[in-house]
Amino acid sequence: MDNSNNPIFTAVSSSVRQVSLLLRCIGFSPKAEVQITTDGLRFSVEESRAVQGLAFLERSLFSSYTFNAASDTATSSPNETTSSPSFQINLIALLETLQIFGLSDATHSSSRNPNGGFTSPYAHNAFNTPALAATGGTCRMSYPYLGAPLSITISEAGVTTTCNLNTYESSTDAGFDVDESIPLQRDALTLKIIMRSTWLYDAITELASTNPTMLILTASGHTTPLFALEGAGGPFGDSVVDFQPEPSRTPKSGLSSNETGKDEQARAPWVSETFTVLPGSGTRGTIRQRYKFAHIQKAARAMDLASKVCIRCDSQGVMSLQFMIELSRDGIGVGPARDAERLNGGGAGGAAAARVSFVDFRFVPLVDEEDDEDGSDKENESFCVDMNGSTASGQ
């Protein structure tokens, strides 16, 4: 069964920092489901079937990427997701391996911040560890055959380290994508908002000061508040962040075509690039969903690093936060501040050199009496199609 001459998967990355950065965004669980596809690697972690983190390492992040689908299955269609091998891996061990040469901030381990992770560990300084270790170095990943360890070889400055990480049988059914654990019904969306991630990050940070137990999301296409986040159940009372409507009375292109065109209906939160609330999605077209605040905090690292976020809710209340993270040539994440700096004063070709990756979080709502929480999972779409299509017009 050893296919070492023709391994299932091999890939080489010239920037370990990029890979480590993306995987640390979902590092709230010790084990991750990994799926190898022709387009890249899908990593999925979850907790109590209530929150799920998804990171997709596109093949464009690697200088070399080889996937031999025929090595692990008898089917002759390598593009089919059913022929994509999947396995479990210890995510903490993987992250420690990737930072073996100090590619991550030494003051932060791979375990999550007990305070919610709202202090960014990615402050960019010419003398900090990530900046000194970001140049040079390569990472080679290899998965020879089904059940074999995942081999990771990291080389830098003439020093080479090889780690073989044990893999475990996947807990998902054969043929299923790893991102189907908490399905988002894209054909039954009730809310879609695209905004800069820093606005959401600041709002969650503000709400966290009262130590709430619940996050209540309210959105409406015609009544105020158009979009509000409330932290409830904390020992210091409740707090609300209300995203005010834009001052202009001109309708925004992102509004739902079903709206009637009244002044109040034509307005959207001024921080949003796209704002769509489908009528009939709640009482008088108003959406109100409750989520566990501690679950939302698990997305704080991605929230801090991302340039934009796409907030979506479906008819069952499942919420998706899809973050667009920009990666520069040296592998350091470009957050909102550095993104603006690059656009304003970056050299020629700087924008073209940046790469875009996506990290997705999904949250199951807290159950109301009238809610019928039954998770029908009939959904299999490409990971970042919505954000790709929307951000092109948003810029």
Structure report:
The protein has 395 residues and is an alpha+beta fold. It has two domains: 9-180, Proliferating Cell Nuclear Antigen (Box), CATH 3.70.10.10; 186-368 and 387-394, DNA Polymerase III, subunit A, domain 2 (DNA Polymerase III, Chain A, domain 2, Roll), CATH 3.10.150. Helices cover 17% and strands 32% of the residues. Strands 2, 3, 4, 6, 10, 11, 15, 17, 18, 19 and 20 form an eleven-stranded antiparallel β-sheet that branches. A hairpin with a 6-residue loop joins β7 (138-143) and β8 (150-156). The chain is elongated and about 65 Å long. The chain starts with 8 loop residues before the first strand and ends with a helix. Keywords: DNA damage, DNA repair, Nucleus. Residues 241-266, 369-395 are annotated as: Disordered. It is found in: Nucleus. InterPro entries: Rad1_Rec1_Rad17. Belongs to the rad1 family.
How is the topology of this model organized?
Elements: E1 9-13, H1 16-24, E2 31-36, E3 40-47, E4 51-58, E5 64-67, E6 86-90, H2 91-98, H3 129-133, E7 138-143, E8 150-156, E9 159-165, E10 167-169, E11 189-196, H4 197-208, E12 214-220, E13 227-232, E14 239-243, E15 272-277, E16 286-292, H5 293-297, H6 300-305, E17 308-314, E18 319-327, E19 333-334, H7 336-345, H8 350-353, E20 355-363, H9 385-394
